[in-house]
Specification:
With 262 residues, the chain is an alpha+beta fold. The chain has one domain (2-261). The protein has helices at 10-18, 50-59, 79-89, 119-129, 173-182, 203-213, 233-239, 242-261; strands at 2-8, 23-24, 29-36, 39-46, 61-66, 72-77, 90-94, 106-108, 132-137, 151-158, 162-169, 184-188, 196-201, 214-218, 220-221. The strands form 4 sheets. The protein has a 5-stranded antiparallel sheet. It has a 4-stranded antiparallel sheet with strand order 6-5-13-12. It has a 4-stranded antiparallel sheet with strand order 9-10-11-14. Helix 3 (79-89) packs across helix 4, helix 5 (173-182) packs antiparallel against helix 6 (203-213) and helix 6 crosses helix 8 (242-261). The longest helix is centred in the last third of the chain and has 20 residues, at 242-261. It is globular.
């Protein structure tokens, strides 16, 4: 059985260690390590672009079939999308006998080697670099924040190692309305015998909302150990991974939407 574990490159680990375990947002490469019995299989990827992640999101199968008035069958499959992203990002691997290993056991992945890497390894490796969860951190202040001063904190846990806090200001009506309209794109599949809907996440909508409402970030740094300050806001915002932004914004949307309904 393969178990994924993400590991940062030596350069990134050094920077983060010097900064007290901060997560480096603008990493250039990341490494996923798979364990198969006694074997360790390492995969090094370049940083994905927004276009890479947007294309992956469009390839994820996320559907619902209404079997009856009270029963809905969800269908979710990101395996093929993850394989596609793997093929886009992979640079080198270690732990495989390829005939082209360097002195440290690494093999560059080119057109000849790429199709030989098992599909299951590709799927698990991409899952490994996207081990991230998000939760709302409730304000323990006894005072009720007035409109305009309210902040919401979403804390992400990245690969079970780093805790990063993202603070958001209250969105304007225009920002909130745009997110609700565009966050998830829904299409009904015509001609199906039962009601059948296909959903796709709009990473651009999540990105725009995140970029517009973020106030500050704690627990993260940029190259050289730079921590957040107002003058670096644009750099920090641009460095946050688009998949992380989507997860964070979805968590904010669920929480804030529930507050509005109270």
């Amino acid at each position: 059985m393969l178990t994924p574990e993400m590991q940062l490159s030596a350069e990134e680990s050094t920077i983060e260690g010097e900064r007290g375990g901060l997560y480096r947002l603008d990493y250039e490469t990341c490494e996923a390590e798979l364990h198969a019995g006694k074997k360790s299989l390492s995969h090094v990827f370049r940083r994905p672009t927004f276009e890479d992640l947007h294309a992956r999101a469009q390839k994820i199968i996320n559907e619902e079939i209404n079997q009856s008035s009270s029963e809905t069958e969800p269908i979710y499959d990101d395996a093929a999308a993850n394989v596609w992203l793997y093929d886009r990002l992979i640079q080198r691997v270690r732990g495989y006998r390829t005939g082209s290993e360097d002195a440290n056991g690494w093999s560059n992945v080119g057109p000849e080697l790429l199709p030989l890497i098992p599909v299951a390894h590709k799927q698990k490796a991409i899952s490994g670099i996207y081990q991230v969860t998000a939760e709302v951190i409730e304000d323990d202040d006894t005072l009720f924040a007035i409109v305009g001063a309210m902040e919401t904190c979403i804390e992400t846990t990245v690969v079970d190692q780093f805790k990063v806090r993202h603070y958001f200001q209250q969105p304007t009506e225009q920002q909130w309305s745009a997110l609700q309209k565009k966050q998830v794109q829904t299409r009904q599949i015509r001609g199906a015998s039962k009601q059948h809907y296909k959903y796709s996440v709009n990473l651009a909508a999540a990105r725009d909302f995140y970029d517009g409402c973020l106030v500050r970030i704690e627990g993260a740094c940029l190259d050289g150990g730079k921590t957040f300050e107002p003058g670096l806001r644009a750099e920090f915002v641009n460095a946050v991974d688009a998949v992380h932004k989507q997860l964070i914004v979805q968590k904010f949307s669920d929480y804030y939407g529930a507050k509005l309904r109270e």
